[in-house]
Amino acid sequence: xxxxxxxxxxxxxxxxxxxxxxxxxxxxxxxxxxxxxxxxxxxxxxxxxxxxxxxxxxxxxxxxxxxxxxxxxxxxxxxxxxxxxxxxxxxxxxxxxxxxxxxxxxxxxxxxxxxxxxxxxxxxxxxxxxxxxxxxxxxxxxxxxxxxxxxxxxxxxxxxxxxxxxxxxxxxxxxxxxxxxxxxxxxxxxxxxxxxxxxxxxxxxxxxxxxxxxxxxxxxxxxxxxxxxxxxxxxxxxxxxxxxxxxxxxxxxxxxxxxxxxxxxxxxxxxxxxxxxxxxxxxxxxxxxxxxxxxxxxxxxxxxxxxxxxxxxxxxxxxxxxxxxxxxxxxxxxxxxxxxxxxxxxxxxxxxxxxxxxxxxxxxxxxxxxxxxxx
Length: 375
Description:
Blueprint: H1 3-20, E1 29-34, E2 50-51, E3 60-65, E4 74-80, E5 85-87, E6 93-94, E7 101-106, E8 113-122, E9 129-130, E10 135-137, E11 144-146, E12 148-149, E13 155-156, E14 159-161, H2 163-169, E15 180-183, E16 191-195, E17 197-198, H3 200-205, E18 210-211, E19 214-220, E20 233-235, E21 237-239, E22 242-253, E23 258-259, E24 274-281, E25 303-308, E26 315-324, H4 333-337, E27 341-348, E28 358-359, E29 363-374
Parallel strand pairs: 3-8
Antiparallel strand pairs: 1-2, 1-4, 4-6, 5-7, 7-8, 9-29, 10-11, 12-13, 14-19, 15-16, 16-29, 17-18, 19-20, 19-27, 21-27, 22-26, 22-29, 23-28, 24-25, 24-27
């Protein structure tokens, strides 16, 4: 066969392969930002002009500004999954002064769509009392999500759990059997129920046999669920007052058999829950954003205050807990007022669940949580 004929056949085959290559089915916003001359004046900090590493399950992006009433049209830009498109157009100026704007992201293959709500609002202090009465099923119906209604009526998704990660391990589990669920038997009304669950064959394969029920101020990022689970937990949200103590009510029953990460029983060890909170600087000396995760939320050098309940003995009746913040690092109150610190508040059904150690069936109930601030 002549060389020219071989070349023609190879070219045809290559062209066919290119044509048959499937187009991307993903339609996510990965990052969002605002840039332009004079726009920084509307934000408290320059870093507030960018929302990086948007969690995969997030559908609402909120920029914090000084005054919403004086806001001009904003040219919001996005980094999307490869090949995806967005409407309204990427970088087009939109009027957010009267409320949020809905964006639709379409996958490269045109078959998949996701809607995101983008909003600009003034910095407000979240509530200091939480009864956990407001929750809903996720968009796919697999697990529960909680939200908080602010005084102005807006919905704030300030609470997160590892439920989205558990869905990857056990996709066929009923929503009521996930590690973090609502329970109607609270002090009054609903409460949070956290249970240490098995992660099945997936967990045995990846040496992560259990998933402790967890619930915390912050967000969940599933992109690390298969590689570094402790990085999935984005711990903390900005607060503008110094916390003094946290109180609330709990019930706890440990599971029968405590096991290590290899699912081997540990003789004589009884599972314990954990409740703790930290206040930390959310930017370093160079102005880079800091977010604590499950692997450094109790050890980061940027922590300035820490509170932890020393003992949570088993009890079938509601018992009050209280923890006081400790720490000698001076707080910059001007920086605090400008949202320069994050507060993380964490509840877990197994104290060492981050090491995949604990007892299946350990159950922690939490209700009526209140944060006291230094006025």
